[in-house]
Amino acid sequence: MTTSHLQELDNIDLADPSVWDDGVPYELFKRMQREAPAHFSPQNNAPGEGGFWSITRFDDVRAVSRDHRTFSSEKRGIFHLNDIAEGIPLDLQRMQLISMDPPRHDRLKALVIKEFTPEKIAGHDEHVKQIISDVLDSVADKERFDLVADVARPIPARVIGSLLGTPPEDDEKLVHWTNVFTAFEDPVIRAQWSDAGAIVTEIIEYVNHQLAERTDTASDSLVNTMLTAEVEGEKLTELEIATFFVLLMSAGNDSTRATYSATMLEILRNPELRKQLTENPDLIDAAVEEGLRCYPAFAFMARAATKDTELHGKTIKEGDRLLLWYLASNRDESVFENPDKFDITREGLADKHQAFGGRGKHFCLGANLARLELKLWIQQTLERFPDLELDGEPTRVRALFLNQYNSIPVRRKSMSRLREEKTKS
Amino acid sequence: MTATETARARPAYREVEIDVEVRRREVAADGVVTLTLADPDGADLPDWAPGSHIDLIMTPSLVRQYSLCGDTANRSEWQVGVLLDPDSRGGSQFVHDKLQEGSTVRVRGPRNHFPLVSSPRYLFIAGGIGVTPMLPMIGAAEATGAEWRLLYGGRERSTMAFVDELQRHGPRVSICARDVADGPNFRASLEAALSDPGQDTLVYCCGPEGLLTAVEAACQAWPENSLHIERFSAKVLEEPADALASFEVECQRSGLTLTVTQDKTIYEACEEAGVDVLGSCMEGVCGTCECDMIEGEADHRDSVLNDAEKEANETIMICVSRSRSERLVLDL
């Protein structure tokens, strides 16, 4: 374990997995915010990358996010590695709009953003409710289940699958593919595939097959939108459509799953909060926002400097990578009072936290959808399973990029009582 | 009625924003009308709980909140009660002049800052048009079999809406009109009702500031969280004095010049003209729609830019911000 308060900040490498042994190093982030707001980690486990600067203060995350001319998403992608999952190089990552700069980023985002406006998303209300209800039905007769594997995985998978136009039987495959792109550092998850390049090929073939199936039929799925879209008079290539698909698939799966799991865990551990939300479901809106603030799905997004620039007395050289740590900025003491407290009474929270990014062109495309899903989902979970309780220690995904649980074992108290009574009689 | 909320205390989830039709417009009392709103195609409206309000979006800069006062079980219609303030230049005048049966209005919501927490006993206190949220609350209390009372005060009996409907509940309801000499006195009734903290009783109060302050003071001795209030006042977000009714936006890269009238945003005007624009939250929060400004002075209404950035006038969030100069030149 790293006793961060005893170590010199200069010697700390945030890429070192041992720094994360006890979970997110919040205290370390607080020290960085106070003492080293532009902190350098050498990234010793990937020496070729040249290390990264950690940006942890709320205002700095915001300023860097908004200045896409000085801090590029395209130059070195949004991960902390040029080549992810040993087979997905930067060139391929850069075909996704999340790893592009304006103006190309804007043109591609414009193709789909109209499907994610508050108005459009509100129209999915009934459909999302149904998906949640179906998945909760599937665990309703179990005394014990896993909140991540059995509930948190299938729900966003089906929601984004239905928007993409993929059939339910492929949901698990999409979840698996998502892991390749985001959870590739976790040793347990990494063992599930050997060749990331082969998976990319598999996805391209899958998307092509999907497109071929629906070319002749009118369909309002996102895949179809991409197929017919033109950017500056040119249709997207097969590879561009496939990478676009991967982005929507992975963003839709990972994000909502992570924040739901962590927020539910908070609720299970906090009886007072649970009572408030059960008695007054209108407060769930606020709980969703506080869940987003305390438990953002992605630990950071990266940028790279397009020119030499000064930040808090440090020189960031052209090409240097910066990680914008939402895990830290969302708990910046100068912005949020008692930042580690889960407090649903904070004013103006929805407009403030950086779970969807630090503002600007790259602000999360799916924010409105995520909010709808989380609200309905937490509401239904509390309604359906008022007797849910923790049944063991949750485990986290071991990947720098993801702030996510792998497993949260739970059980239904009333069902165990029922079973005991049956055994007695 | 107009429920003020601090502009920053918005709830999380973005509610629906839809055009609804005014199905009925009925006079509920002197100077008070009830509007019955429905989807033009008869589709169900989102469900809501007692205490909820909706925004009526009259123009992009003229938005007013009204409590829903109809039946929560009726998914096809929403009702709001509106006080027509003769001194108002804004919201209620618009409702009075423009919202006739058959007209269409854009609404956003519902949201709830005044939720009814379950309790065996309620004391409802309403001043004037503040009675509107109490109607569905009374319905909910009746449905759960809770005990309840309503103290409803107003200046003149003829201006107090829904009195007949409420009097059906008999002695549970006290109507206190100042011009009715032999009726109950509002102040005395309040003092009597609040003098003793009721057991397991929640107090819900909506009305003018003076009433709220008095009730807050009287409830000091009550258990914590007994009192729930909703403030309303006639003044919310008036147009700034120097706001322009319409202005021109030159989209330099597209080579188009558009007129942005009061009823639309820069974003909408661009979209209609086929200029490529990006937008996500549509309320000046996320920063997706930020554009570089080449010329002109913006009227910044977003919560993305800080004061210095607003002052610098180099960029603008086109989903909500407008113009202080006759012409804005944008890099679009």
Describe this structure in words.
The complex is a heterodimer of chains A (425) and B (332). Chain A has helices at 26-35, 58-66, 90-93, 104-113, 118-122, 125-139, 147-152, 154-164, 171-182, 187-190, 196-214, 222-228, 238-269, 271-279, 284-294, 326-329, 367-384, 413-424, and strands at 38-41, 52-55, 71-72, 144-146, 230-231, 234-235, 300-305, 309-311, 314-316, 321-325, 388-390, 395-396, 405-407, 409-412. Chain A is an alpha+beta fold. In chain A, helix 15 (284-294) packs across helix 17. The radius of gyration of chain A is 22 Å and the shape is globular. Chain B has 332 residues and is an alpha/beta fold. Chain B folds into 3 domains: 16-112, Translation factors (Elongation Factor Tu (Ef-tu), domain 3); 121-231, Rossmann fold (3-Layer(aba) Sandwich), CATH 3.40.50.80; 247-330, Beta-grasp domain (Ubiquitin-like (UB roll), Roll), CATH 3.10.20.30. Helices cover 17% and strands 33% of the residues of chain B. Chain B has 7 helices and 18 strands. Chain B is elongated, with a radius of gyration of 22 Å. In chain B, 42% of the residues are buried. At the A-B interface, helix 4, helix 5, helix 15 and helix 17 of A face strand 1 of B.
What is the mean pLDDT of chain A? 91
Q: From the helix content, strand content and strand pairing of chain B, which structural class follows?
A: alpha/beta
Largest interface: pair, residues per side:
A-B, 38 and 33 residues
In CATH, the homologous superfamily of the largest domain in chain B goes by the name: Nucleotide-binding domain of ferredoxin-NADP reductase (FNR) module
Give me the Rg of chain B, rounded. 22 Å
Give the strand order of the largest sheet of chain B, numbering strands 1, 2, ... along the chain. 4-3-6-1-2-5
Helix amount of chain B: 10-25%
**Domain count of chain B:** 3
Shape of chain A: globular
Return the CATH class of chain A: Mainly Alpha
Looking at how many chains there are and whether they match, the oligomeric state comes to heterodimer
Number of domains of chain A: 1
**N-end to C-end Cα span of chain A:** 50 Å
Distance between the termini of chain B: 40 Å
* Secondary-structure arrangement, i.e. CATH architecture of chain A: Orthogonal Bundle
Main beta-sheet annotation of chain A: 5 strands, mixed
CATH class of the largest domain in chain B: Alpha Beta
Number of H- or I-type helical stretches of chain A: 18
- β-strand amount of chain B: 25-35%
